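User: Can you model how pyridoxal-5'-phosphate sits in this protein?
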Amino acid sequence: MRVPFLDLKAAYSELSRELDEAVLRASHSGWYIGGPEVESFEADFAAYTEAKYCVGVGNGLDALTLALRALDIGAGDEVIVPSHTFIATWLAVSAVGAKPVPVEPASGSYNIDVASIERCITSKTKAIMPVHLYGMPVDIEAICTLAKRHGLAVIEDAAQAHGAMVGGKKIGSHGDVVAWSFYPGKNLGALGDGGAITTNNEAIASRVRELGNYGSSVKYFNEERGVNSRLDPIQAAALSVKLKYLDGWNKRRQHIATIYSQALRGLGLSLPNVPTWAEPVWHLYVVATPERDALQSRLASAGIQTLIHYPVPPHLQKAYQALALKAGTLPVAERLAKEVLSLPIGPHLSAGDVDYVVSVLTAVA
Ligand SMILES: *Cc1c(COP(=O)(O)O)cnc(C)c1O
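Assistant: Here's the modeled complex, given as structure tokens:
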């Protein structure tokens, strides 16, 4: 028996007729940059995320970077980021010339510890950039309250959290701006790269659109030094199809997570905790154990593919040597890098596969 970590082809196969039709429609439309496919997806995704505006961009990293630029965050500024996240969160801050200031996860959680943020705020802090990691929402209401008290902006990294909710409200407009990735493996994934921001702030929305279009809103007149980062119409067409299935696919992930959480109790693994106010979308189902490497190889021997998100925390990457955050400075992130293991999860994992993963884990954990 072989259980892949995630079967991307299966997501395409389920909707291949509709997706092929959408891609062909975009091809035949004559609009290859912007146009009706992009506008229609932006409107649908804004509605889905309960935000007033959505602006498509080239990818998730650009969404974060352009969000920071739209808030005039740059050289000399500090931005609070999680110590435990995908490196893109930090890279966006660095890309605008600002400094990422890491805050460790709360105990029993993989998300930033809201109670520890305040201690890291200095006169240079301009924004908090929380991540809804693994599809588990952070306590965004508490973060927004804290940010307001200190006059800081909130930029949410929602690259793993399409459809997640806090207190019954969708992630998408709690903070000043929310950044999304449509990388193929995300809960809402394109047939290639894609990204977007959502916001309730019209000025931020139009600034991101302008920045992603060479800093121009009127062709050949450039207000500032922008970049080229736009959502492709073919990707927008594919995303419009997939958006209709997102809730159903998230429900399937939820169902698998419920099975894992019930069946894996008592095996000595740390299982994900779901706060009462949170509705996660289970981008990943992550367990933790000091015996991680041994467990991973036992699962691999049984044909079960698992992944590690992430094996090296950003501060210990060569890319961040210059920050001089040596090993030992962020012990929680460093421990998680050694202990976390992502189990197979996705809308196309069969009930038989889930049962098999549970039975192997029960035998070897
Ligand atoms: C995927 C991801 C990104 C970057 O998105 P891309 O579209 O790959 O650029 C940023 N942050 C997090 C947390 C991610 O998982």
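A couple of observations from the model: The chain has twelve helices and 14 strands. The longest helix spans residues 233-263.
User: Helpful, thanks.
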